[in-house]
Amino acid sequence: MPANTSRIALLERDAVAPDTAALYDALLAQRRVVPNMFKVLAYAPGIAQGVAGFLRALLSDGALTGWYKELVAVRVSILLESEYAVTAHKASAAKKGATGEQIAAVADFERGPFSSKEKLGFRLADRLHRGPREVEDDFFVG
Question: 106 pLDDT band (50/70/90 cuts)?
């Protein structure tokens, strides 16, 4: 199967129920694009709404800023070798206030313009990517 061919047809706005169309409109307003994952989740509108709510809470400003959370998602996407996700999260990070220098530095975050706490978050993402046993107690104490 060619790399750009989807196994599941992506539902565009004109093919979805009104509640899902409202979700598409909100995503367009926030991100300027409806991510393809929502165009697939639209087959199950309740799941699409649930995932949107979860991601909104997960990636919004809170104890950590939204742009930093997006940069951690960029880091994880790099580790997973998902160019699609890298591109999407870089765009979201920029929209939420990350600088071009910060976005460019995620691949080599140790040398990037990040605080020691921000670097710690990237290190944690790296360890979690390798597996749960990679996060020993001394990681949190050190």
Answer: very high
